[in-house]
Amino acid sequence: MLQIEPAFLQYPDWKGHSFLREEVAKFLSHYCCSPKPLKPKNVVVMNGCGSLFSALAATLCDPEGIRPSGHHRICLVSCLISLGFFIFSPRLDVRPFQLTVEKLENSLKEAKKEGLNIKALILLNPHNPLGEVYSSEEMISFLEFAKMHKLHVIVDEIYMLSVFNETDTFHSVLSLDGFPDPQRTHIMWGVSKDFAMAGMRVGMVYSENRDLVQALDQLGCFHGVPGPTQYQMAQLLRDRDWLNSEFLPENRRRLREAHSFMTEELKKQDIPFLHRSAGFFIWADLSKYLREKTFAEELSLWRCFLKHKVLLSCGQAFSCVSPGWFRIIFTDQLHKLKLGLSIAHFHFSSCILVVSPMEWDKM
Questions:
Q1: Which of 75, 79, 274, 283 is most buried when burial is the number of CB atoms within 10 A of its CB?
Q2: What is the share, in percent, of the chain residues with pLDDT greater than 70?
Q3: What is the 3-state secondary structure (H, E, C) of the chain?
């Protein structure tokens, strides 16, 4: 694991060293239950999924199409909309926040009315922040929608190994016998979530589109992964005996335990939440602590928590259309969760008694 070959200290293949791409292909073939072995030539490795999103946006949203050129502009994920990506905002109807083809159709029509040229659709499965795990049938319907409208699809499966309820099963799109539009379907995964290794900065995308792979190769010099890190990642990915017998079972046990603790505490406070079994977060409705159902009040409540060292993510950060929803991260040590809850509980009670915004901000 600590071995450093001289070749690791030189410029690599910007798509990732061949030995790592081979291990990634084997790893994804196994854990995504691919019907046939995935091909290493379709794998691109970069320094994190954020960099992959940036590079994909720079290529897929080029007004002249995909070009394997080194002169694309680099963008941040926050700039995806301006580069032509459509970010779906969940709606509160039928099944709360559930994504459907009908909602995609309506949102695409709205975007076109605003003069937006939509190039791609981003699908998160399991979902962040909802923790929703979409079925194969649902994912196929989304892919069919994208094919109908000639949209590229980026499927982000970065939480695929963090489904902790044994009764729920995650089905990767790579487990399908085929894609409705293989040349426009691109699958992402990384080690920052499932392996709790965000600091290693390793993300990967699998695509059968050779033009896209070549274009990403040209951008790789801006997003490369150090050679020693690539070697360590290859060693980790190939150690499936340890992953299957020790790491993954223990990780899922800890996720279940922390999730159970947090949901029981929310029930005691009579706080509604989505009960899902994937990811690191719970989508909770704290709207009863808002004096008015507005996003301004939601932001004030968020600031109140932040001032007292409790960090939650408010719904408007995720384009939620209903004020009062927050994402709560539960993946931490139990004593830290208890401390955060005790602080939050005190200020829940205090915030209800506040009369003016000025007093609220002083809390």
A1: 283
A2: 85
A3: CCCCCHHHHCCCCCCCCHHHHHHHHHHHHHHCCCCCCCCHHHEEEECCHHHHHHHHHHHHCCCCCCCCCCCCCCCCHHHCCCCCEECCCCCCCCCCCCCCHHHHHHHHHHHHHCCCCCCEEEEECCCCCCCCCCCHHHHHHHHHHHHHCCCEEEEECCCCCCECCCCCCCCCHHHCCCCCCHHHEEEEEECCCCCCCHHHCCEEEEECCHHHHHHHHHHHHHCCCCHHHHHHHHHHHHCHHHHHHHHHHHHHHHHHHHHHHHHHHHHHCCCCECCCCECCEEEEECHHHCCCCCHHHHHHHHHHHHHCCCCCEEHHHHCCCCCCEEEEECCCCHHHHHHHHHHHHHHHHHHHHCCCHHHHHHC
